[in-house]
Records
---
Amino acid sequence: MSGNDTLARLADVIAQRRGGDPDKSYVARLFAKGNDAILKKIGEEATEVVMAAKDGDPKRVVAEVADLWFHTMIALAAHGLRPADVLAELERREGISGLEEFAARKAIRREGGEASQ
Amino acid sequence: MSGNDTLARLADVIAQRRGGDPDKSYVARLFAKGNDAILKKIGEEATEVVMAAKDGDPKRVVAEVADLWFHTMIALAAHGLRPADVLAELERREGISGLEEFAARKAIRREGGEASQ
Amino acid sequence: MSGNDTLARLADVIAQRRGGDPDKSYVARLFAKGNDAILKKIGEEATEVVMAAKDGDPKRVVAEVADLWFHTMIALAAHGLRPADVLAELERREGISGLEEFAARKAIRREGGEASQ
Amino acid sequence: MSGNDTLARLADVIAQRRGGDPDKSYVARLFAKGNDAILKKIGEEATEVVMAAKDGDPKRVVAEVADLWFHTMIALAAHGLRPADVLAELERREGISGLEEFAARKAIRREGGEASQ
């Protein structure tokens, strides 16, 4: 792994901490608590990103997005996945038809009209 | 290409689309709608990650985390930030004291006891 | 009409609309889309409450909390539940030991120490 | 206040606890921590509602919706609002044009087409 692959390295650290002592490691503790505890953190950290952005505080936006990405990586690990899977998906979308595929994909998924959305 | 490069390239594409035609580009449309529309997507996509994970569907987990990261990158761009800023923050935390800093930082932030947390 | 009555009447309206024509009724359309569509709205509306509150806009806070409660009532209906079940739970907590039970209950649920929480 | 007005009574209890001792009262503690702590709980509890619903556990759905409503009532109080304001808004919508106003209102707000929504 190249030195500039931050997420891959972070995933390795998460994998290593996963089986550690829950009393000493935050990551081990979160895995010990189980899936719902991990997912709850995603809802929580997403809310913190929103609040930091509403405050227009770039430093806090960075810190909260880091928290959110970190906890999504824990969720990925809990499902046997790695950041590379997400990056490959992002590349795939961009490669095939550009980012606009996001819109197209979701529009198809939600077709039939959704007045309130 | 490293993960860092993938995110950097994606940020470039977002920057490029940003000023485009809202009728043709999803990214341009989201920027045109403004900050709240972007942030709302973060709450929405975080919820979709949680639902995919509850369903134990790895393929959907990857797709929804990709959506969530993509929209956090749009929020970063809206604040003049880039994924590199988040990666640097993640590296910094790891560098100083390992991931355990997450726990310490949050514990300090929340000190004074929070029974319900 | 008491607040309890308002919620009960709203639940009746939801139940009535549930089986209606998805092309004409937002409620029917949401039920037709299924559980995930309903739950996604809860994540979305919760985010809108947070944003309205950050903006300090009381009128929008009221409107967004109304949206959030309305969609939680749809989720309740999807599980064969009614607002009265939630009100009974709120009364029960208050009756036994006051609102402080919230704190105690959660503290117990999360016992064992959670540095980052 | 009539005995069957659960939310109004709960709002009174919240108002009473608000100025209490943060060491003894969860409500006092949450107010002492400020707006962001309250709003974060809304994101957190919304996520818990979603997870309970995904598990199809009616008892937990009731408990988590109770948590969510309780914390939205704290957010209302923080803005000088009461549940009656939300109930009046829900009645108003129902009274004027039925629940379908939700859809119409949001559709207008989002007009111009939103492929990805």
---
Amino acid sequence: MDTYRFALLGFGNVGQAFARLLLAKRDELQTQHDLRWQVVGIMTGHHGAAVNPDGIDLESALAMIDAGDSLDLLSTEPTPQNGVEFILSCNADVLFENTPVSYHDGQPAIEHISAALSTGMHAITANKGPVVHAYRELTRLAQAHGRKFLFESTVMDGAPVFSLWRETLPAAELQSFRGVLNSTTNLILTLMEQGKTFEEAVAYTQSIGIAETDPTGDIEGWDAAIKVSALVTVLMDVNLKPSDVERKGIESLHSEDIRSASAEGKRWKLICQAERTNTGISTSVRPELLDPSDPLYSVMGTSSAVTFHSDILGPLTITESDPGPHTTAYGLLADFINAVL
Amino acid sequence: MDTYRFALLGFGNVGQAFARLLLAKRDELQTQHDLRWQVVGIMTGHHGAAVNPDGIDLESALAMIDAGDSLDLLSTEPTPQNGVEFILSCNADVLFENTPVSYHDGQPAIEHISAALSTGMHAITANKGPVVHAYRELTRLAQAHGRKFLFESTVMDGAPVFSLWRETLPAAELQSFRGVLNSTTNLILTLMEQGKTFEEAVAYTQSIGIAETDPTGDIEGWDAAIKVSALVTVLMDVNLKPSDVERKGIESLHSEDIRSASAEGKRWKLICQAERTNTGISTSVRPELLDPSDPLYSVMGTSSAVTFHSDILGPLTITESDPGPHTTAYGLLADFINAVL
């Protein structure tokens, strides 16, 4: 049985949830999938970094983060000064890249993943930046080194979207899709329908940790646009940047709009769509007024959904409810298993 | 490039749709997947059989069926007397078994698939009988011969359900599911909500070819129960026969029930469910009165849907709309590609 050596770059909500999932599934991975793992490096944004070729005790690392301590205390090696230095010092088999997303250029995550693939590591990420800004280059680099670059968690958390097309729908061509892909705005609209003001709703999404301190990326539709870009780039084989997506956020919707929609039995949703046209791809992110016959009408709260239209199947919809860091973490684990088995 | 030799046993709506799909995707399979195929045998229920080691022209076969002619005219070999004789005479690489389902014992499809696997063929079927009555035996037989036994089309047509769990959700354990899995009864209930009587609705489903001449299997819930059995047997690793499922059909629902539900903003659906318990599995098929907040409330007409609950993800729902023989045919094609690539 092989033991895979993991480097965890980024140890926020998702990185920590992944660590807990690894611990919870340790025995099952060993007995049912013949897979062992060992974490040889963890680099955090604000709590230091640890590199130990003999393995880092994950439970200790989680406890130290909870206590506000620096992981430097767990390191047996000199503290790396940046992500690339960290990756090169780990001598790992798999990099899990979970640093914060950069919408405009995907850095430094692209550099991190390049460094990992170039030195023979698989690279797995929940970070959308590298997918929309360097999918083809990183995939080619992975192939050249006989490794995998996987990113299931970047859209709809751990729900299978990329692997659905890669593994289960061969010889089907994606022609269009339409979905609700941003949890924060969908929860805000749900709360406003329940009577909260926009400001109260935003504050609530921040209080439960799903919106950033600056929630602009969600509210103005950038997060939805980067997900549209990722799906189009990977599944429709057309390079598309977030800035190429026609984009309107929910900032223009007022409580009055929500109330009057509700009075008519309708509902506003931030709808993402993409469609192949004669000249390329037409894409948009914008609020739409849905009536109850629309399959996306009932996608409430933090749930998300996407309907795929292909040349060969009727509309196929994937709906994910109750997402969270633990479901994003599952996408990382599924990618790891798919990469090595 | 390999050329795979196909034997098509059963050439009704699904078998013919599969033949049309093979013709439509011939070039794409060759250029994008490096796969060639040749049909060396077709056996029908009422229009004879053809075996030709040099390949049968599929367009001619489809035209002859349309014209009501016997396929015997296309054969270069003696006419086989039964399915097993047909399989043995074909010398094929892949058997597509699409004979009518037998709810109570899965025969003769199990014999057909056994014969195919034993002689080194992959066996792919849209027939639920072999899955619920011989899944483990046939899977072991396939493994012993280094071949695949696949059956994606048996539940929700070509929508990926089995391959979803096999390929995209590793190390996740299915704990329960709930769904609308029988298209005929769902369409009947939709039509009754629109004002048709039960008898008119049944007649309509027969007129469009989705219900059998004797629609009892659908109406009494047997088709739904066999799908529950298939999902439980394969995805939850517990053998379950259709007769083990607590079962109540839609025959007890009257127009008055549908109307009064509608007046309250509710809707009757034939709901399938299964749940792991301390002592095993609890399963049922029965009409349930759903309110609009239920995710299955909006599954109308011939659409179907299933929500999976696992140990590791939030509820994950797959919804398929506009199914038909062409989508069942796609499941067969996807299984073939997954078997050989």
---
Amino acid sequence: MQTEKFVYFDNINTTFPDPRVVRKIDEVLNFRLGNPSAHIHSAGIAAGKVVDEAREKVAAYIGAAPETLIFTSGATEANNLAITGFLKANPEFGFVCSNIEHFSVLNQIRSLRNSVKTSILDVDSYGLVEPDSLEKVLKNNRSIVSLSLANPEIGTMQDIEKISEICSRNGSILHSDATAAAGLIEIDVNKMGIDLLTLSGHNIYGPAGVGALYVNKKIRLASIFEGGNQESGIRPGTENVPGIAGMGEACEALKGDMKSHEKRLRDLGNDLWKSLQESVRFVNFTGHPEKRLPGHVSFWVEHIEGESLLLLLSMNGVMASSGSACSSNLKAKDEDELMASHVLAAVGVPSDICSGSITLSAGRYNTEEDFNYVKSVLPGLVEKLLTMSPSYDDYMKNKETTDG
Amino acid sequence: MQTEKFVYFDNINTTFPDPRVVRKIDEVLNFRLGNPSAHIHSAGIAAGKVVDEAREKVAAYIGAAPETLIFTSGATEANNLAITGFLKANPEFGFVCSNIEHFSVLNQIRSLRNSVKTSILDVDSYGLVEPDSLEKVLKNNRSIVSLSLANPEIGTMQDIEKISEICSRNGSILHSDATAAAGLIEIDVNKMGIDLLTLSGHNIYGPAGVGALYVNKKIRLASIFEGGNQESGIRPGTENVPGIAGMGEACEALKGDMKSHEKRLRDLGNDLWKSLQESVRFVNFTGHPEKRLPGHVSFWVEHIEGESLLLLLSMNGVMASSGSACSSNLKAKDEDELMASHVLAAVGVPSDICSGSITLSAGRYNTEEDFNYVKSVLPGLVEKLLTMSPSYDDYMKNKETTDG
């Protein structure tokens, strides 16, 4: 039953590096570069130039000035630096986020709530933050608001311009984690009105182990760990020169055909949604039907377990996920806890009839054939699982009784 | 006056990656790996295997079990995790370090001193911690003691086994930053009696952007930032798969010829020391003459500025440093502050007659020819600077007066 097929629909959790990124990293590793802080000799100066060039390329992707970017080890560190680093430097602010944020945002409440006013906003059944509820919270308390551009698990994209308008009108600061959205849509921090933005290298066809935080010039941050004076003293530690170079190259590679890939993936994603709607019995889609990431389709199926469907998909060469990989290795105390995604709970998916959701997330390397393959194979796998499902069996017996 | 010569004596600040490391990273980047947390499909499982294999290789280098290693973004983060992470989980302990530690250790006092008893130990003129003064501090307070295996700026290696014996006898925990020593000497955490050990990828012929913290199984740590459950929940964030793979390969590459390189570099270093002692006027060596890193020679020269000598060396193709590159971009308020290294001050180098020190640090790629070139070129550069030195001019006039 194993197959040679390799149809990767888990781009939300990691993408494969662009060949230009791989070449760049190889070049940098072979270049006998010094430590960028070693300003006194040519090997150190050359390393500093590699970092500077990458900073320009990453900044260009989000329409920012190079000096507004701080390189980090990834999105998790960038999210911690944005929120805890901001609140260390600006302790008079509160902290607001939604109940569908990534754990690297949401869990910061644990350490912040003793010193800072914290609020968690509910989202609606599509995963959207209600502008009114945000306005109400901010009226009472200037805050740093952290809302991701898009949710990885259900694909919903926030109305970020509306949100940023509310934040700035109330003297508040907007941080947005763009990990899920970057690489799929165009981002402009000025147009969007974002003060702090998190980027992840490995989610935009760059390498893992590197990320960046955009910091609007008007904002003061404190570092979250101690050390040397790298990255304007905000992020100590010798720079990840090959990783940073790779992330720069990834942003450079995105530039040319961002719009065309966005349109192509949006059309293919919409088409897949429609196809599954018609061909998969008991399907329930999650997230907003229009305000969503291009090429992202997420759903759960009544009577069957998400995990089982993922496994069957995997055995047929289709790699998908149950939302964010980051939550998949949480140590759950029991099976119920393991199944209950905080995102699904937040959008009101009933935990008694939903046993796990599926996220199909495409990227620029996915072809129309990949989408067609999923369309052709998925309905059959669902049917197979339905025949083995005690819950479906009960349902059918019940139905026969009622119908009969 | 520029030259094509490339004689790299700044290995203490970064090393060049081993060719096997470069190949491994290239392979990993090309392998279409998933997110290691995506346990449900083959691409994710393959990524997890890459991380597991690397963990075994890094562990083998320090004689530890694989599950005792936490991968980080580098030594700075590992030092912060070791100390702040330990004290978060064990708030009844104090914190002790020496006055020649790296800023990523020393500066943690700023955030810790409000909640924890902190002590800074003076070192002697060689940079060695006095066992009695450590014993005295620990008698009053169980502590986490952080002392680096070797100091990057002056090369001195602590008597770590004596120190660990004192720590364990007093119910204290020993953390050691091995950034400067690793790759140059053999390390065995059990023989050395170290509870927490920091390793840096780019200092052992691996890539930048990755490090590791060894954590003795008996020790509980708290994470220093929030997020997913990666690295046993101690270090959240998607794993730096290519960087970790590169660091694993670097450790694997060290194994075979560690001892022979250590002996070769020790002999060449001692020989360089003797040669400079005879050929360089007004030379003052720093650090311990025997208890020091192999291939590491550090000194300052009366009447001349360290920075000028570094510059002339660089123009002649010799790349050296003024100790730790991490301190070279500190924002100093005035020139005095810029010159005064906290390490030189700690070992009693007189700041009125010393204007900056030089660190020549060799690595396994340095040849005997490299050492001979330094021996041949350095004395002449010192003489050239002496002829331009007002201080030397005064000294000579004074001498003539006294002698005449």
